[in-house]
Design goal:
There is one protein chain. This protein is 31% helix and 17% strand. By secondary structure, it is of the alpha/beta class. The chain has a domain at 171-240. The chain has a 4-stranded antiparallel sheet with strand order 3-6-7-8, with no helix packed on it. A 3-stranded mixed sheet has the order 4-5-9, with no helix packed on it. The chain has a two-stranded parallel sheet with strand order 1-2. InterPro entries: HTH_Psq, Integrase_cat-core, RNaseH-like_sf, RNaseH_sf. This is Transposase. One of its GO terms (molecular function) is DNA binding.
Length: 255
């Protein structure tokens, strides 16, 4: 079984490199809810110039379209013979994908197939500036001797060096209005001191939703689900310094 990075590169070789990805918060996709360091897949995306988007925790509507697609797939598989082994199941899945995308006209697409509609449109591509920033960051890490393993994982640092360890604190999300500096101020409560999270002056006066899940602060737009900030809570400070994962978390994620 290959890694998610290998599978992604294989898909890119067949369909081209996308402008962005949308996934849930599985540990193979992101470490943002568990660590201040980006994971191997996140670093791979950044190096390729692909912007990462993650679904909002406990918000299943984000991946609603693919969930409905899974339901259709399961019905299609249930109507046919049971696969005897993994190879046969993969052949059945290939057959479904071919029928669904290349043979079945869709009413919402003017009776065209999804493949025809997809190929008729221009494609957004990766961001070369994002890729250049990630490469520069990697070069700097290598120069300082704090680079990555061959697998793409960051070299483990000593305790307390350059990061804050997550604390096991969970506070339900609540609505807040940012001040003129673009800061979200959450009053003391739920076992957490008063905290101030800066999400940028461009977000001044914006209504946002802030929650803490196992020591990770997440600020989102309650209407669009856009992730405005995601960082580890520092329980010793009121003002939470911005700690985006370089090259990965610098672009807002869509929920």
């Amino acid at each position: 079984m290959g890694t998610i990075e290998e599978s992604f590169r294989k898909a890119c070789s067949r369909y081209g490199i996308p402008a962005s990805t949308l996934t849930d918060n599985g540990s193979v996709y992101t470490t943002r809810l568990r660590s201040a360091e980006p994971g191997g897949f996140e670093r791979t995306l950044a190096l390729m110039g692909v912007r990462r988007k993650n679904g909002r925790p406990y918000h299943p509507q984000t991946q609603g379209k693919i969930e409905r697609w899974h339901r259709t797939l399961k019905k299609w598989l249930a109507a046919g013979p049971l696969a005897k082994d993994l190879d046969e199941l993969n052949r059945q899945l290939d057959g479904f994908r071919r029928e669904y995308n290349e043979e079945r006209p869709h009413r919402a697409l003017g009776r065209h197939t999804p493949k025809e509609a997809y190929e008729a449109k221009g494609k957004a591509g990766p961001d070369p500036e994002l890729a250049a920033r990630e490469q520069a960051r990697r070069d700097e890490e290598e120069r300082r001797g704090t680079g990555m393993e061959a697998s793409g994982r960051p070299v483990r640092r000593g305790p307390g060096v350059g990061r804050v360890r997550p604390v096991d604190v969970t506070v339900p999300a609540g609505l807040h209005r940012t001040d003129g500096r673009g800061c979200v101020v959450r009053a003391r409560g739920g076992g957490v001191r008063r905290i101030v999270v800066n999400i940028g002056k461009k977000n001044a006066g914006r209504t946002v939703e802030l929650g803490i899940d196992h020591g990770v602060i997440t600020v989102v737009d309650p209407v669009t689900g856009e992730v405005l900030a995601g960082q580890v809570l520092d329980p010793a400070r009121d003002y939470q310094r911005r700690r985006p994962s370089p090259g990965v978390n610098d672009a807002p994620g869509q929920m």
